[in-house]
Every structure is written in structure tokens, then in C-alpha cells.
Design a protein that fits this description.
Layout lengths: L3 H4 L13 H10 L8 E8 L11 E5 L10 E4 L5 H6 L4 E3 L1 H8 L7 E4 L1 H7 L3 H4 L17 H11 E5 L5 E8 L4 H20 L8 E8 L5 E2 L7
Parallel strand pairs: 3-4, 3-5
Antiparallel strand pairs: 1-7, 1-8, 2-6, 8-9
């Protein structure tokens, strides 16, 4: 059932001509009529159904404008790396004892970083970490000996881009309270990351079919892509 608040928002946005993001942001923000600081979210529909194989995107993007979220980061490392992990300001740090807690489903974090030497032990917990998208991955920079760098990036504003089986990608570019420049810079960082991923894939036609932007409780607008994706 549509709420009275939602009925007052701009209607029939799907019939509007697609515009560049800088022309749409004012409308998106004007639709943020709730009492909390709504997220500004992108919804991509990609061309993942190829003849020979499906396209599975998974990468991370460092958002220049931040995300507005406080990310709780855990680090699994050997004893020799514990001091470095403590200096990194990770929220949870440990070795075998932390792995045991994870094994018992004590997951009190949103990002998990692991050193290569401990990954052999952690990889056995795929059934626990996999469904939550928390299994460290070298491609995502979460299996590394550079603990300080990995933790700093995770906390500074790093988001993961990953499509589902239907070719949908959902990602936030910030909050309503962000100025337009921050939101646009974050948007551009995501577009650049997708362009880079496309160059590494065998795609017939465009990678991105459609792109919409909305706020947490608002209505969606179609974005005109600046680049040939």
C-alpha cells in the first residue's frame, strides 16, 4: 500500500526523458521527505546473459566522497602481524581464536580482511562466510599482507559492486546530506570501475542496459549514461 508521503512525490518518473546525474540530483533530494538521512542509491541492469557464459561482476570501488557509513572491520592474521593490525584501527583482531568465533557464527563485523598465510584456515569456513559475502578475496584486496592499507580503504569509503543472477547491481553513492560534488564523484568512480571491468570481459553489445537513481524512500529516475557502457 502506497503511503500518503509517497503519493506526494513526483509521479510517472519512468516516462521522463533520461538525464545526466547532475540534473537529477536536485529532484532526488527534494523527494527525501523522511526524518532520517536517506541513502542515494543506484540500480543497474546489466547485459549478463551472453551466449557462451553469464557475466559475473565482482569488484570494489574506493569512493572519493566516502559513504557516510561506519564500517566495522575484522582482521584475521598470524601473531607476527598482530601489532600492525592493532595500529590499523581494525575493530576486531585475532588469529585462531577469531576463526573459531566465526566458525560458531559469531560474526560481529561487516568487512573481513585476512593475511595470505591464514587464508588456508579461513577458507574452510566458506559455508559460514560465503552466503554473507564476507569471504576474503585477493581480487577485492581483502586477502593481503598490507593490513594498514586494506583497513584504511575499507573504513574510508569502499563499496563492492556485484551483480545477482538476474543482472541487477545495487549500490549507494552516499547520503542526502552529501553535497552534489561528493555524490557525483562517487558516481563517476563507479562508472569508471564498470568501464574497466567491461574492458576485461567479452561482451556483445553494451554492458549496462539501464541505470536508475533513487533515495531510500523516494521514487526512481532514469540516468543518461555519459560513457558507452
Amino acid at each position: 500500500m502506497t503511503s500518503k508521503r509517497h503519493k506526494k512525490l513526483t509521479e510517472y518518473t519512468k516516462d521522463l526523458k533520461p538525464e545526466n546525474i547532475d540534473k537529477i540530483l536536485s529532484s532526488i533530494k527534494s523527494n527525501c521527505t523522511t526524518k532520517f538521512d536517506e541513502s542515494i542509491d543506484l540500480s543497474f541492469r546489466i547485459n549478463n546473459k551472453q551466449k557462451k557464459s553469464e557475466v559475473n561482476l565482482r569488484t570494489v570501488v574506493n569512493m572519493p566522497g566516502g559513504t557516510g557509513k561506519d564500517v566495522k572491520v575484522a582482521v584475521v592474521c598470524e601473531e607476527a602481524k598482530l601489532n600492525e593490525a592493532k595500529d590499523s584501527k581494525a575493530d576486531l583482531i585475532g588469529g585462531d581464536e577469531l576463526i573459531e568465533k566465526i566458525k560458531n557464527s559469531e560474526i560481529n563485523f561487516e568487512k573481513l580482511i585476512c593475511t595470505p598465510s591464514m587464508m588456508i584456515k579461513l577458507s574452510k569456513l566458506g559455508k559460514v562466510l560465503g552466503p554473507k559475502g564476507l569471504m576474503p578475496n585477493p581480487k577485492l584486496g581483502t586477502v593481503t599482507n598490507e593490513i594498514q592499507k586494506a583497513v584504511t580503504e575499507a573504513k574510508a569509503g569502499q563499496v563492492e559492486i556485484r551483480n545477482d543472477k538476474d543482472g541487477n547491481i545495487g549500490v549507494s553513492i552516499g547520503k542526502k546530506s552529501f553535497d552534489d560534488e561528493k555524490l557525483i564523484n562517487n558516481y563517476k568512480a563507479i562508472i569508471d570501475a564498470l568501464e574497466k571491468e567491461k574492458s576485461n570481459l567479452t561482451i556483445k553489445g553494451d554492458l549496462v542496459k539501464q541505470l536508475y537513481i533513487t533515495s531510500s524512500m523516494g521514487v526512481s529516475y532514469k540516468i543518461k549514461l555519459d560513457k558507452n557502457l
